Amino acid sequence: MFTKRGVVGAMCLASALVMGASTSANAVSVGFNVRSTSGKAEISGTYKYWVSGTAAGRTLYDGSFSGATARDRVAGDGYEAVLALKYDEFTGGAWRPVKNKVAVVNGTKSWSFKNKANVYAYACDRKVGKKPLLNCKRAW
Predict the structure, then answer these.
(1) Over residues 88-101, mean pLDDT
(2) Contact 106, 71 (CB under 8 A)
(3) Strand partners of residue 46
(4) What is the C-alpha radius of gyration for the chain, rounded to an integer number of angstroms?
(5) What is the pTM for the complete model shown?
(6) How far is residue 82's CA from residue 110's CA, in Å, rounded to a whole number?
Protein backbone atom coordinates (compact mmCIF):
# COMPACT_ATOMS: atom_id res chain seq x y z
CA MET A 1 0.00 0.00 0.00
CA PHE A 2 1.40 3.42 -0.97
CA THR A 3 1.50 6.40 1.36
CA LYS A 4 0.82 9.87 -0.03
CA ARG A 5 4.59 10.56 0.10
CA GLY A 6 5.27 7.34 -1.84
CA VAL A 7 2.68 8.14 -4.51
CA VAL A 8 3.96 11.72 -4.92
CA GLY A 9 7.56 10.48 -5.10
CA ALA A 10 6.66 7.89 -7.72
CA MET A 11 4.78 10.52 -9.76
CA CYS A 12 7.79 12.87 -9.56
CA LEU A 13 10.10 10.09 -10.66
CA ALA A 14 7.90 9.16 -13.62
CA SER A 15 7.46 12.81 -14.57
CA ALA A 16 11.19 13.48 -14.57
CA LEU A 17 11.86 10.41 -16.69
CA VAL A 18 9.30 11.51 -19.26
CA MET A 19 10.19 15.20 -19.25
CA GLY A 20 13.96 14.66 -19.03
CA ALA A 21 15.32 17.21 -16.56
CA SER A 22 18.66 18.39 -17.92
CA THR A 23 20.65 19.97 -15.08
CA SER A 24 20.92 19.95 -11.33
CA ALA A 25 18.77 23.09 -11.41
CA ASN A 26 15.99 20.83 -12.75
CA ALA A 27 16.59 18.11 -10.18
CA VAL A 28 13.80 15.98 -8.80
CA SER A 29 13.87 15.29 -5.04
CA VAL A 30 12.17 12.25 -3.60
CA GLY A 31 11.82 11.78 0.15
CA PHE A 32 11.70 8.15 1.23
CA ASN A 33 10.91 6.16 4.36
CA VAL A 34 10.35 2.41 4.31
CA ARG A 35 10.82 -0.61 6.56
CA SER A 36 12.18 -4.02 5.61
CA THR A 37 9.58 -6.75 5.24
CA SER A 38 10.40 -7.94 8.78
CA GLY A 39 9.96 -4.40 10.14
CA LYS A 40 13.34 -4.62 11.89
CA ALA A 41 15.14 -2.15 9.60
CA GLU A 42 13.98 1.29 8.53
CA ILE A 43 15.55 3.55 5.91
CA SER A 44 14.83 7.21 5.22
CA GLY A 45 16.33 10.27 3.55
CA THR A 46 16.16 12.28 0.35
CA TYR A 47 17.10 11.06 -3.11
CA LYS A 48 17.79 13.77 -5.71
CA TYR A 49 18.60 13.18 -9.38
CA TRP A 50 18.80 14.87 -12.78
CA VAL A 51 19.59 13.97 -16.38
CA SER A 52 23.27 14.53 -17.15
CA GLY A 53 23.51 13.13 -20.68
CA THR A 54 23.28 9.92 -22.67
CA ALA A 55 25.58 6.96 -23.20
CA ALA A 56 25.18 3.85 -25.34
CA GLY A 57 21.59 4.82 -26.16
CA ARG A 58 20.50 5.32 -22.53
CA THR A 59 19.98 8.34 -20.33
CA LEU A 60 22.66 9.11 -17.71
CA TYR A 61 21.66 10.46 -14.31
CA ASP A 62 23.69 12.28 -11.68
CA GLY A 63 22.36 12.90 -8.20
CA SER A 64 22.74 12.54 -4.48
CA PHE A 65 21.41 10.99 -1.30
CA SER A 66 21.04 13.36 1.67
CA GLY A 67 20.56 12.22 5.24
CA ALA A 68 20.28 8.61 4.08
CA THR A 69 19.64 6.68 7.27
CA ALA A 70 19.47 2.98 8.13
CA ARG A 71 17.97 2.47 11.58
CA ASP A 72 17.85 -0.80 13.51
CA ARG A 73 14.39 -0.90 15.06
CA VAL A 74 15.06 -4.01 17.20
CA ALA A 75 18.39 -3.54 18.96
CA GLY A 76 20.22 -6.57 20.31
CA ASP A 77 18.52 -9.20 18.12
CA GLY A 78 21.65 -10.06 16.09
CA TYR A 79 20.53 -8.17 12.98
CA GLU A 80 21.52 -4.76 11.65
CA ALA A 81 19.74 -2.28 9.38
CA VAL A 82 21.08 -1.78 5.85
CA LEU A 83 20.26 0.76 3.15
CA ALA A 84 21.20 -1.15 0.00
CA LEU A 85 21.25 0.09 -3.58
CA LYS A 86 20.55 -1.40 -6.98
CA TYR A 87 21.43 0.54 -10.13
CA ASP A 88 22.94 0.44 -13.60
CA GLU A 89 26.32 2.16 -13.96
CA PHE A 90 28.00 3.41 -17.10
CA THR A 91 31.71 2.71 -16.76
CA GLY A 92 34.47 1.73 -19.16
CA GLY A 93 32.23 2.48 -22.14
CA ALA A 94 29.47 0.04 -21.13
CA TRP A 95 26.48 -0.32 -18.83
CA ARG A 96 26.78 -2.79 -15.94
CA PRO A 97 24.23 -3.76 -13.31
CA VAL A 98 25.09 -3.34 -9.61
CA LYS A 99 22.96 -5.20 -7.06
CA ASN A 100 22.98 -5.27 -3.27
CA LYS A 101 25.45 -2.40 -2.90
CA VAL A 102 25.57 -1.69 0.83
CA ALA A 103 25.45 2.09 1.25
CA VAL A 104 24.60 2.61 4.94
CA VAL A 105 24.64 0.26 7.95
CA ASN A 106 23.08 1.43 11.23
CA GLY A 107 23.83 5.09 10.62
CA THR A 108 23.42 8.15 8.40
CA LYS A 109 25.40 9.29 5.35
CA SER A 110 25.13 11.68 2.44
CA TRP A 111 26.84 11.25 -0.95
CA SER A 112 26.58 12.12 -4.62
CA PHE A 113 26.77 9.91 -7.72
CA LYS A 114 27.38 10.20 -11.46
CA ASN A 115 26.57 8.16 -14.57
CA LYS A 116 23.85 5.91 -13.14
CA ALA A 117 20.40 4.76 -14.24
CA ASN A 118 17.56 2.85 -12.60
CA VAL A 119 18.67 3.72 -9.05
CA TYR A 120 16.64 2.07 -6.28
CA ALA A 121 17.13 2.00 -2.50
CA TYR A 122 16.11 -0.94 -0.31
CA ALA A 123 15.58 -1.39 3.43
CA CYS A 124 17.18 -4.70 4.40
CA ASP A 125 18.08 -6.74 7.46
CA ARG A 126 21.49 -8.40 7.73
CA LYS A 127 22.88 -10.67 10.42
CA VAL A 128 25.68 -8.80 12.17
CA GLY A 129 28.96 -9.52 10.39
CA LYS A 130 27.35 -11.51 7.55
CA LYS A 131 26.92 -10.64 3.86
CA PRO A 132 23.49 -11.82 2.73
CA LEU A 133 20.81 -9.16 2.75
CA LEU A 134 17.47 -10.35 4.08
CA ASN A 135 13.86 -9.15 4.01
CA CYS A 136 14.56 -6.30 1.57
CA LYS A 137 11.83 -3.88 0.56
CA ARG A 138 12.21 -1.27 -2.19
CA ALA A 139 11.71 2.36 -1.23
CA TRP A 140 10.30 3.52 -4.61
Answers:
(1) 97
(2) yes
(3) 31, 66
(4) 15
(5) 0.83
(6) 14
